[in-house]
Amino acid sequence: MSSRRPSNQLGEWSEVSTQTVDEFLASHSVDPVRGFLPSADPLERLPAGFECWEELAADLPKVVCAGRIHSAIAALPELSPTDLADGPELDRAMLLLSYFGHTYVFGDDEPRSTIPANLARPWYQVAARLGRPPVLSYASHSLVNWRRFDRGLPIELGNIARLENIVGGMDDDWFVLVHVAIESAAGAGVAAAVQAQDAAEHDDLEGLAKHLDALGDVMERMLGTLRRMPEHCDPYIYYNRVRRYIFGWLDNPALPNGVLYEGVKEYADRPQKFRGETGAQSSVIPAFDAVLGLDYSGDVLGKHMVELRAYMPPRHRVFVEALEERFSVRDYVARNADHKILVAAYNRDVQLTGDFRRQHLEYAGTYIRGQVQTSGANPVQVGTGGTPFMKYLSQHVLDTDRYLIEK
Fold first, then answer.
1. How many of the other CB atoms lie within 10 Å of CB of 156?
2. pTM, two decimal places
3. Do the Cβ atoms of 329 and 346 come closer than 8 Å?
């Protein structure tokens, strides 16, 4: 429900939601504390009847290392996911099947372009129920792939472990856990971002400055966590051991025709092309961009980022779109540019967004572009999401700076 009132600044009519912030977040499956992480800790094991999937998942790094992934998957019975409940059970099934699918495709020196029916069909069925393509995406790789050592302590580095691995080892785990910790840190910022929009709509200058300050504090914690990546994730090991398994089959030079999902009648025997897992499929930065009014839709990377929303959980995707349609914080701050504290709070958020992107660009150069390419299936010029990332990321960093508002 909503009421209507004239805007204080423009005299135009605007929709004023009567939902609380928590209600607005909950309607999009966003937690007011955890953000885009699930409200309950992820399921650690599927129910009875799916033991063969769990057994393979437990041994996956060893099976991959031994070169036995293809025979192991060929030996799997075809299980129906029909009885799996929506929510944690379906999320875990998607995680396991995605890891099986990617290790099957990339388990040899040369990628395989066909996924057998006993894996392809249940993978497609689970993905269809989740509203995402049957390919490894960030939602599976990070959002539901962790557990806490102590459930009484926060979801942060030092208290989280990865549930499932592809190749195993500290570097493989740390890469994912840093992303999980960033998501956890971002949770309070997502709530603050929505509160900032509400404050702007209600012409609350002090409230808006307070919420923008809170968002900035969150961004600083996120950036501090991102900067810990090199502690336990070595660039050489990441590139040569981890990265190859998270590519997709769109704009992948080693799979120019995509991948055939054997036995999936909905695809009519036509190979499919899906993008690989990438942190750009996280909803956090797009949500913050939306609230701060940072619009990149006119550049190539911006269009690519919008395309990647198809790999987000659908309700998170709709949440980002809803933020883009809500009251403009940037316009409101620009109209009140004489309020120095408000402008400083807004500019700090924009600057931190740029700093986050600059750190990402630096890692892209070190962890990928600076490595020696060893296989056409692991190109140093193309990101796992299928873009010439260095060019796009560099432009994105420059574009962020132009949104600073003159005091």
1. 15
2. 0.92
3. yes
